[in-house]
Write a structure and sequence with these properties.
Helix content: over 70%
Number of strands: 0
Distance between the termini: 88 Å
Shape: rod-shaped
Radius of gyration: 28 Å
């Protein structure tokens, strides 16, 4: 293998490694985004349940339940 072929081979290797690393980083970012979305949905559900409970307690206290 001459110097030009070796340099080309090395460049191809570096490009492949960079692409693989970028792919891995994108997958991690996607996983973080999905986890964050799920966490926010859970938190939103908990907040909604607490607000509903507070509204029911207020209705009870004011005698507004039917």
């Amino acid at each position: 293998m001459n110097n030009s072929q070796n340099a080309s081979y090395q460049a191809g290797q570096a490009k492949g490694q960079a692409q693989e690393k970028a792919s891995g980083m994108m997958e991690k970012a996607s996983n973080v985004a999905q986890s964050t979305k799920e966490s926010l949905q859970e938190t939103g559900g908990q907040m909604q349940a607490k607000a509903q409970g507070a509204a029911e307690a207020t209705k009870d206290a004011l005698g507004m339940k039917k």
